């Protein structure tokens, strides 16, 4: 599958992949936020590993895929409004099911994914956090809002950038407020586990099996 590159945008440049050609009804979208070292002006760096590489090397997938790119020195929290604007534009222009949008991030992208999902909980059917922590700026009420969003968290047990204990604390907090959280610690994994995580068949199936909770569905 060839991923399209879109540079002519007033918000953020992005990679985009359509759903497989045989899809005849609205399909899910996976929105991916990259890590710090992939910031810049060359979209090709996103294709070197993780979810963008998996999508690019797959023959066909049952979901749309988009991966915007940050300029150097910026964070996803800085560009929250642009990420939501990109999502809105794609929902209008593509056959995307707005009730089946999955948000995923790696490292710096995970912090952005936590923040954006907590700020717009009614927009997402699932959150996948890989090798990253929730921002300390998240208020308890924002964490509580995430209880309606199924969450998958992946971390390497040998990750030197963050501890399993810190991640477990977030997991426990979310579960205390009624959240649905699955936490997977890879025993031999370091910080850079994205290839292993995103190529896993169970996660790929999870992407397309989630649908926004009825309480959040807007008529």
TrEMBL record:
Pfam families: Abhydrolase_2. The keyword Ribosomal protein does not apply. InterPro entries: AB_hydrolase_fold (IPR029058), Plant_Biomass_Hydrol_Est (IPR050955), PLipase/COase/thioEstase (IPR003140). SUPFAM superfamilies: alpha/beta-Hydrolases. One of its GO terms (molecular function) is hydrolase activity. Residues 83-197 form the Phospholipase/carboxylesterase/thioesterase domain. This is Dienelactone hydrolase family protein. The lineage of its organism: Bacteria, Bacillati, Cyanobacteriota, Cyanophyceae, Nostocales.
């Amino acid at each position: 599958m060839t991923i399209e590159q879109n540079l002519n945008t007033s918000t953020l440049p992005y990679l985009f992949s359509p759903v497989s050609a045989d899809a005849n009804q609205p399909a899910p979208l996976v929105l991916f936020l990259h890590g710090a070292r992939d910031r810049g002006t060359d979209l090709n760096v996103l294709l070197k590993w993780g979810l963008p590489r998996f999508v690019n090397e797959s023959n066909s997938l049952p979901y749309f895929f988009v991966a915007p790119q940050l300029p150097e020195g910026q964070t996803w929290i800085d560009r929250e409004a642009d990420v939501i604007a990109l999502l809105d534009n794609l929902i209008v222009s593509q056959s995307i099911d707005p009730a089946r949008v999955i948000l995923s991030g790696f490292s710096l992208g995970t912090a952005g994914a936590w923040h954006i999902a907590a700020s717009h909980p009614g927009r997402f059917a699932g959150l996948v956090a890989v090798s990253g922590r929730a921002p300390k700026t998240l208020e308890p009420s924002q964490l509580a809002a995430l209880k309606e969003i199924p969450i998958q968290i992946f971390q390497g047990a040998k990750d030197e950038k963050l501890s399993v204990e810190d991640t477990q604390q977030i997991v426990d907090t979310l579960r205390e407020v009624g959240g649905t959280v699955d936490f997977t610690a890879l025993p031999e994994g370091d910080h850079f586990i994205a290839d292993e995580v995103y190529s896993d068949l169970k996660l790929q199936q999870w992407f397309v099996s989630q649908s926004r909770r009825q309480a959040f569905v807007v008529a």
